């Protein structure tokens, strides 16, 4: 016991001596520096939802993607063209750099080394993802019977927007100029959407509002963008770099109270978000 006590005293003396030799650890001249103030944690915006095709393959930083998302801090985010590894990093950066904490669920439909890296025998998973500030339950992941030139599908979860439970879908339809495939995909998706009175459908539909293949969706739900309904006239704000409206937030049981479309340097699709109120 005497030996142990002597050892502790000696160690303490060495630490103090080193601090005296090195000098003060804080600009104020005090022996012990005070911890720097922690930046205030930014909260998510209640009732705000976002859809974003994050672009893949694109040589961009997930730090920058996270910063774009944090600018608008939605409560729920639907991502398309999402690799699991990228989403994991984006979620970590949102929490560690911006104080935004999200749960995540995946709707991967493809395993692709070319898209998502990894190794040939264990490639990364590719498809959709949903990030939500509230926990998510009852996840389903459905691959469309025919994706067209690439596997496509939808995912759905139950979570909360504001303080209300809601079924959230996230999808990515077949490429442009593949109208017949998209029409069948919308048929599959719409049949599930129709089962819910309070629902949000996020996604890249790869079709302009008056495309015939979207008719089933318009019969069920309204997009939150102003003047987007095919029956209306007026300028429709594009959501892509090629000036087309492809990205949608369809809702049932909600009405939009604000809507934003924001070009990003890190994707060929814009960030699309809307604030919702109960219908």
Spell out the blueprint of helices and strands.
Blueprint: H1 2-22, E1 45-53, H2 62-72, E2 74-83, H3 84-98, E3 103-111, H4 113-116, E4 118-119, E5 122-123, E6 125-132, E7 137-143, E8 153-161, E9 164-172, H5 179-193, E10 199-204, H6 215-220, E11 222-223, E12 247-252, E13 254-262, E14 271-278
Parallel strand pairs: 1-2, 9-10
Antiparallel strand pairs: 1-14, 2-6, 3-6, 4-5, 7-8, 8-9, 10-12, 11-12, 13-14
Helix pairs in contact: 2-3
Summed up:
The chain has helices at residues 2-22, 62-72, 84-98, 113-116, 179-193, 215-220; strands at 45-53, 74-83, 103-111, 118-119, 122-123, 125-132, 137-143, 153-161, 164-172, 199-204, 222-223, 247-252, 254-262, 271-278. It has 279 residues and is of the alpha+beta class.
Essential attributes:
26% helix; single chain; alpha+beta; 279 residues; 6-stranded mixed sheet; disordered N terminus
What does this structure look like?
It is a single chain. By secondary structure, the protein is an alpha+beta fold. Helices cover 26% and strands 34% of the residues. The protein contains six helices and 14 strands. The chain has helices spanning 2-22, 62-72, 84-98, 113-116, 179-193, 215-220, and strands at 45-53, 74-83, 103-111, 118-119, 122-123, 125-132, 137-143, 153-161, 164-172, 199-204, 222-223, 247-252, 254-262, 271-278. The strands form three sheets. The chain has a six-stranded mixed beta sheet. Strands 7-8-9-10-12-11 form a six-stranded mixed beta sheet. A two-stranded antiparallel sheet has the order 4-5. A hairpin with an 8-residue loop joins strand 13 (254-262) and strand 14. The longest helix has 21 residues, at 2-22. It is globular and about 45 Å long. It starts with a helix and ends with a strand. The model is unreliable at 1-41 (pLDDT under 50).
């Amino acid at each position: 016991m005497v030996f142990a006590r002597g050892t502790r005293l000696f160690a303490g003396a060495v630490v103090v001596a080193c601090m005296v030799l090195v000098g003060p650890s804080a600009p104020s001249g005090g022996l012990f520096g005070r911890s720097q103030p922690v930046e205030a944690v930014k909260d998510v915006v209640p009732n705000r939802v976002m859809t974003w095709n994050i672009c893949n393959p694109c040589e961009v930083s997930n730090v920058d993607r996270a910063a774009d998302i944090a600018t608008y801090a939605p409560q729920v985010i639907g991502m398309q063209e999402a690799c699991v590894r990228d989403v994991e990093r984006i979620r970590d950066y949102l929490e560690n750099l911006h104080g935004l904490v999200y749960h995540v669920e995946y709707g991967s439909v493809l395993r692709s080394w070319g898209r998502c890296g990894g190794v040939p025998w264990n490639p990364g998973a590719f498809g959709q993802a949903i990030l939500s500030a509230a926990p998510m339950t009852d996840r389903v992941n459905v691959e469309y019977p025919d994706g067209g030139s690439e596997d496509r599908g939808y995912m759905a979860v139950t979570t909360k927007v504001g303080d209300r439970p809601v079924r959230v879908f996230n999808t990515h339809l077949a490429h442009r100029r593949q109208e017949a495939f998209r029409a069948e995909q919308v048929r599959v998706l719409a049949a599930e959407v129709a089962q819910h009175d309070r629902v949000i459908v996020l996604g890249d539909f790869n079709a302009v509002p008056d495309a015939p293949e979207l008719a089933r969706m318009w019969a069920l739900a309204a997009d939150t963008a102003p003047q987007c309904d095919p029956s209306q006239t007026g300028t429709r704000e594009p959501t892509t770099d090629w000036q087309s409206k492809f990205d949608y937030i369809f809702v049932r049981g909600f009405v939009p109270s604000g809507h934003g479309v924001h070009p990003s340097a890190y994707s060929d699709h814009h960030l699309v978000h809307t604030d919702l109120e109960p219908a």
